[in-house]
Structure formats: C-alpha cells, structure tokens
Design brief:
heterodimer, A: about 325 residues, mainly alpha, globular, disordered N terminus, B: about 325 residues, alpha+beta, Collagenase (Catalytic Domain), five-stranded mixed sheet, 21 strands, elongated
Chain lengths: ~325, ~325
C-alpha cells in the first residue's frame, strides 16, 4: 500500500498551498550540515526492502502540492511573467528534496525556472553533495544542454584532491547516471558519456578519490548504465560495440555493469522512461528477476558468465 | 551422505496422527491459576541430501485456545455434586464466557490475544512441558484445544566472508513479534487496520551448501553486492532460501543508491539478508515472500519499509488474510 500525498491536499487552495509548501520544506529530508560533510555523504541509510536512500526518502512527502499549483515568476530581461510549478520553490528551498518524476515532467519548465534551479545548484556548497542531489535529479529530467556543464564541473573540479573516506560510492557518481537521462535529449551529454567509457578519461580528469583509490572503474560502470538509460539506439550501440571490441580485462571488469545496463535498456525500450522512473524498488527488483529469465536475459547472463570464467546459468 | 531412501524434505517424525500435534492436559481447579501441560512431539527426522545440518531449533510452538467460562455467580460451586446421575439439570458449564478481549487471560505472563489464543514456546523434547495459565475467574474447562502454528521451513547459507549469524534466532525473535496482538483491547475485530496475531514457526535449516557454492562463493561479488542483476541472480539462486551477505547496494534509475538490510521476492521463497540486519528484517522479508507489499502508512507495521524507524510488529486483517502460505509448503531449495 502506498500513500499518495499529492492527492491528499486541496488543490488550488491558498491555505493548502502554504501548508503544502511548509510541509514539503519541513518534512523533506533536511539538508545535511557542513559539519558532518564527509562522513554523512556516504553513510548508508538502512532499509528493509529498502525504498530509497536518504536523499530519496522524501519522495512521497516532499511535494505536497501538485505541479499545477504554481507561483508567478517576476518578469526579467523583458520576458513576461510566467507561472512555475511549486516544486521549483521546494527545490530552491531544499536542494535535497526528491520530486516525483510525474510532477517534474507535468509541464514544460520555463527558461527562468531552469535558470533559477541551475543558479541554485551552483550556489549551494559543493559538499555535502546530497544537499544538491534533488536539484541535480530534476535538472537531469527536465534540463537542457547547459546542465552538462554543471555536472561536468561537479565531477571534475568541485572536489579536487578530496579523499572521501567511505568505501561506498560517493553520491557524485550518481551524476553520471543522471547524465544518461539528460542524454536522451542532449547530444552534448551523449558525447560526454561516449568519452566516459574509457577509464583514462576519468583518471585524467577526476582527482578526488574514495579511500585513496581512483573511482575511475566505478565511473565507467556508471557511464555504461547511463548510456542504456538514454534510451537512444546510438548510445546502446556504443555499449554493444564496447562489449565486442574492448580487451578482455575491461570486459571482465565491467561485464556486471553491462548486465545492469541491459536490464535498464530493456526497461526503457519496453516500458518507457516514465514507467521506469516512477516504479518502486520492489517493482525494480521484480523487473530484474523477470528479465533474468527471458531469452534476452539468459543470453546476457551466459555471456557474462563466460567472460568472467564462471559456470553458465 | 545421500539418503535416497528418505524424503528430502525435513519433517518432524510424529508419533501420532501422522503429523505435528500437540496435546494439552489441565488440572481441574475452580479458581486461580492453573497449570497446563502441553506437548508437541518433535522427535526430528531430518534427511538432507548430503552435508546438511542437524536440527537446530531448541523449542517448538503451540497455540493454545484459552476460551473460558466465568462461574463466579455461584451456580457452579457444586458442580461436581449435581447434574448427571441425580436427575437434576446439569449446570456444570453454566456461567459467562470470558471475553479475552475484555478480561485478561495470561499464559506464562503473556496475555492471550482478543481471540483467546496464545502462542507458547516449549522445549523441543518428547517430555510434556508445562506452562502456567492464570485466569482471574473461577471456572475453567478441562482442556484447551491446541494447534501447531503455521510452519515455514527454509534453508540458509552464507557467503564465506560474511559474518556467521543465526538466522534461526533472528526468525524466532521475529515470530514472537508476529504472535502478539499489540493493540488487542482496542478492538474492533472488523477494522481492517486492527493488528492481529500471526502464528508462524520458522524452522531454519542450514542448507546443503552452508557456504555459497560455486561462483557465488568466489571473490567478493556476492558478498558485498554492488550490481543489481547479480543481486537478483543471487536472490533467485536455489541453493538456499535465505542467503546471508555482508552488504547490499542497489543503484536506482535516478542515480541514487539504496542500501537495503534485506531483499525478498514477492510470492517466492527467496530472501537476502545482510548479516547485521535486525531480527525484524527477517520477518519483514518473509512477509514479502508470502505476498505482502511494503506498507508506508504505519511505522508499527511489519511491512514498514525502513529498518531503523519502525517496530515491524503489526499485521492487519487484510494482510493476514492475504498471506500466501503455499509459497513455503513445497519449497525444496537447498535441502
């Protein structure tokens, strides 16, 4: 059973709007303070079946008002005043909030709103990154080419020489996955991911480490999966081409990520991005279990077993 | 060793009725507490197909139905001297039925639920064991019907690098949470949100492969799980029902990570548990296997999806009625 808070509030009521905004701001995962920066970023939030990690936990509660409730933007640079969704306000107040996908895409985002989000993303402190992830996620789903530059800046320059202490992947690596959603609309993002298939690309551009180790392998894994998420044939062809032409060590190292990418590719292909972006963890798990038994899934799993030197399923 | 002459399903070798049974005797007393004798004969006859573990479970559960009659009105005071044989009306059982939803009945210090049932644990021996039944009434019946709880037999295995744990203990603790009616005297029996007791006995064997076999046991891939499909593949592998690992990490489509303490398939006998997961995680995941989905509207619910913020002790009427018990009846994974 799930609770749909978006239907619980009175739409259009000013009081409800204020209540919704207050609730969203206060109930959404609170921004993480700087004092806890390094340690808090990768502290796993423990779940049972898990739903989402801390940055996602506000998913059901963070946007208490539907996207049709809007505020009026001030006219700037000669542009007329327009309305923008309330969720933009929520994110401007709490960059960690997770806005449901269907609300993000319910209506086109104005240039002004996009500017506001991008500016806010740039204003927030680089660390902890969790405090900016909600905005990054929204920008990946509804942003344009300019977002690629923002993400690249975070990946390459904002954490220079930082040594993250935890073994868990830094949330920044999620940006690469988000780049996949962006690449569904952005050629620049696709070009970025194309380069990201090479570990050298990451090793020469990323100076932050996780416990002193290069995250290059992890970022290549993320890139492979991001290419699948783009849903573009040319992106998937890159993965298939890499699968056939890369050296054995590369393949062995990244074959599990390619398996994951194959599931996501099939999901986007068969069900669409909206379906994939709105399902629960349990739905996601069941999808993996189902796909693994399909002829396509069995083929991929046999391939992975071969290159990893394991017994074929 | 392979015992081909025996069924491969572990079972309890029962001396009567061909199945699990319980038997209760009770002393006849007119007032105050009484002692109940209960027996669930559980001489174990386990036949694994090779390398399996021994019977690990030291206790058995029985569910007592403790319906009682209050005869404090005096009508029954002479019960043994009147009635049958004297030509007078037999008023032996005259009195008011005690409603356990209103008047407290305790068995071994635990309160019976609103339906007048109480799940008790006894040492798994052939000797009858006793439990104290305390009734604030003077009238009692001579015996209480008893039954075994629902049985869920499962096997477990762990990655060799994962900490050694006792899944049996985790599931037993979870079973105790499920057996209680935590809001019993609130009572609206028709309220679909009312907590109801669920009596289940988990019998958790070490699987034939006590450590992950083959490729699953090589390296760290299946101990610290970081790839989604590998995680799903381990979950679906049939060498054991419950697999214990060190960590699980799931990458969501929006680039965020989840770190579940446990994962289970819905309507399939498959559970992944992190070795340091709390006991309630095990029964939460078991809830998935019998068809239940996460419930986000009550942090007391068994199916509340977060490990550290809920109590995971309540199952409502709808969930109880919807449990697919057949999932575990024919599960032969890892025997």
């Amino acid at each position: 059973m799930r609770v749909d808070n978006t239907k619980a509030l009175v739409v259009g009521s000013a009081g409800a709007l204020m209540l919704g905004l207050w609730w969203a701001v206060h109930r959404a995962p609170a921004p993480v303070g700087e004092h806890s920066a390094a340690s808090s970023e990768a502290v796993p939030v423990q779940h049972l079946v898990l739903l989402r990690p801390a940055i996602d936990r506000g998913a059901a509660t963070s946007v208490a008002a539907p996207s049709s409730v809007a505020v009026v933007e001030q006219p700037t640079n000669g542009r007329p005043a327009v309305q923008r969704p309330l969720w933009v306000e929520v994110l401007l107040t709490n960059g960690a909030a997770t806005i449901p996908y269907d609300q993000l895409v319910a209506q086109p985002l104005s240039e002004q709103a996009l500017d506001s989000l991008a500016r806010r993303y740039g204003e927030l402190p680089a660390r902890p990154f969790r405090n900016r992830f909600g905005i990054a996620r929204a920008l990946a789903y509804v942003g344009d080419e300019r977002v690629v530059g923002l993400f690249r800046e975070t990946l390459f320059n904002e954490h220079q020489a930082v040594r993250f202490p935890q073994a868990e992947p830094h949330p920044v690596t999620g940006l690469v996955v988000l780049m996949g959603h962006l690449a569904s609309r952005s050629d620049t993002a696709l070009d970025f991911l194309r380069l990201g298939l090479e570990e050298d690309c990451w090793q020469s551009n990323v100076t932050w480490t996780i416990e002193g180790a290069s995250p290059a392998g992890l970022l290549v894994d993320s890139t492979i999966r991001a290419l699948a998420l783009s849903g573009r044939e040319e992106a998937w062809s890159l993965v298939l081409e890499t699968r056939h032409s890369a050296d054995a060590a590369y393949i062995k190292h990244h074959s599990s990520a390619m398996l994951d990418a194959a599931v996501w590719w099939a999901t986007i292909r068969d069900h669409g991005r909206a379906h994939a972006a709105t399902r629960t963890f349990q739905d996601d798990l069941e999808q993996h279990l189902r796909w693994a038994k399909t002829p396509e899934g069995m083929g991929w799993r046999r391939w992975a077993a071969r290159v990893q030197g394991r017994e074929e399923p | 060793m392979i015992y081909t002459a025996f069924p491969l399903i572990p079972r309890e070798k029962c001396s009567r009725n061909g199945g699990d049974y319980v038997h209760v005797k009770s002393a006849m007393r007119d007032e105050g507490a009484m002692t109940v004798e209960a027996r669930r004969h559980a001489e174990t006859d386990v036949r694994l197909s090779g390398g399996g573990g021994s019977w690990p479970k030291p206790t058995r559960s029985v569910v007592l139905s403790v319906a009682a009659v209050d005869k404090t009105d005096g009508q029954s005071l002479g019960v043994w001297d009147t009635g049958c044989g004297s030509g007078e009306p037999n008023n032996r059982w005259v009195g008011e039925a005690i409603d356990p939803g209103i008047r407290e009945i305790r068995v071994s210090t635990e309160t019976a639920d609103a339906q007048g049932e109480r799940c008790c644990n006894f040492p798994a021996t052939t000797t009858p064991t006793t439990s104290l039944l305390a009734l604030p009434a003077t009238g009692i019946s001579s015996s209480w019907p008893c039954s075994p709880p629902n049985i869920a037999r499962m096997t477990w295995s762990r990655h060799q690098q994962a900490s050694s744990v006792s899944p049996q203990a985790k599931f037993d603790e979870g079973a105790r949470l499920l057996a209680r009616d935590h809001d019993q005297r609130v009572k609206n029996p028709t309220d679909p949100q009312d907590d109801v007791p669920v009596y289940v006995e988990f019998i958790v064997f070490k699987a034939r492969d006590a450590l992950f076999p083959g490729a699953f046991g090589v390296g760290d891939t299946y101990n610290n799980l970081t790839y989604n499909l590998e995680t799903a593949a381990l979950l679906a592998a049939s060498f054991a029902n419950v697999k214990v690992v060190t960590s699980i990490r799931w990458l969501n489509l929006d680039g965020s990570y989840s770190f579940p303490a446990g994962i289970a398939a819905v309507n399939a006998p498959a559970i992944l548990l992190r070795s340091d997961a709390l006991s309630r995680v095990s029964v939460h995941e078991w809830g998935h296997t019998v068809g239940l989905l996460d419930r986000n509207n009550d942090s007391e619910a068994l199916m509340w999806p977060e490990e550290l913020t809920g109590t995971h002790r309540e199952v409502n009427v709808s969930e109880s009625n919807g449990m697919n018990w057949s999932v575990w009846e024919n599960s032969r994974w890892g025997w």
